[in-house]
Amino acid sequence: MNSTGWPGTDSRRVGGKVQMNSFTTRLLYTLMPATWYARKDASIRGLLQALAADLTALFEEGLTVTVAGQRKQFFVAFLGCKGDWPWLRKAYNLASCFTSRRVCHLCSGSEWWNMTSSCEARDWRNAEPAPHPYKAGTPSPLRSIPGGDRPSAIKPDLMHTFNIGIGGDFAFSAVITLCCLSFFDDYGSTIQKRLDCAYDRFAQWCFDNHKNAQIKSFELNKFHMTSLKQYPRGTGRAHDTGLVCKWLNAELQGIVPGDFEHPNIMEILQWTLQNFNMFYHLVHGEGLWMPVSVAQRVVQHGFAGGEGFAALASLAKQRGWHLYKLRPKLHIWVHISTMLEKDCTWTSKVLNPLCWGCWSDEDYIGKCCRVARRLNAGSLIVHRVMTRCLMKYKRYFEEGFKP
Fold first, then answer.
1. Its domain of life (predicted)?
2. Using CB atoms within 10 A of its CB, is residue 320 exposed (0-12), middle (13-18) or buried (19+)?
């Protein structure tokens, strides 16, 4: 468990990315070996109760520290909780789930696959407050934190929602689509020959643009497929999804859809790629707070990307192609834009949705795990790991937050 800060005024910030070690922007709250877990999540609940008590005290009483010889008092406000979906569901004791009767914790709509302007995820102006999404029984300790009882405090994570969610499905469905349209036919007409051609172009693009991808080939099994009768899924690498989307957008620049067998599919694919890429281009180009003018453009591209994905799924279904599988994460993607759109109506600056992304958090947890794997302290493992991590904090603080 860790808490995240954002040094938004730091000079080493490039766009929405902070060029610093993740140890300088996150605090390790606790850790627990799997062998210590109690039944029925009692251990998790105990840790959340302690965390909720600390955050409530920091909000109400604050923390007094000495800075440059002066005593200063700081107060901490809870803005939201982020993480992958299994963690959020367990931490907040949510009744909503992708396989439950109620899919979304932010709305009670049943037609989660509807991406039109009239869908439940976008109808926030006239929609009545949805019933709370929590299970009956003892509430989550996180709900006792001031501001923590709002379902909107449970933030959709961009990385898990797009990059290793619908974005991975979209990127590799797009590659298969272009293979079916004979776009990559330099090496032959079989699906693997076309995938080989596609990967060679992708690798060359990465080389030309100084990018490093972890995927080393395009094969059906890499897309979790054994035949074209199965839906492709992402490779599980968030960074690769972003690179493939950027490469495809570059590949289709200047392409005339009418030159292909299914021009409507090619046209919508170009449009959807442009919107997804522009969404990320805009949010990465801003800092902690985005001007409303930029946020409104982000909203438009987010909605358009969702609509394009759904349109491609419909066209693929009509042609018997198993591509662009509709999943509830597409509904969550639309909610990200809806939350930004709502914020644009009452403030001049909108919090960047990258704040709710888990890229750096995954990196941070990986660093802590590497510390733990180097130790063999038995029952003292928690104390030893915390001590080693504090030593790393001290080193980075003394070095002036160098990357």
1. Eukaryota
2. exposed
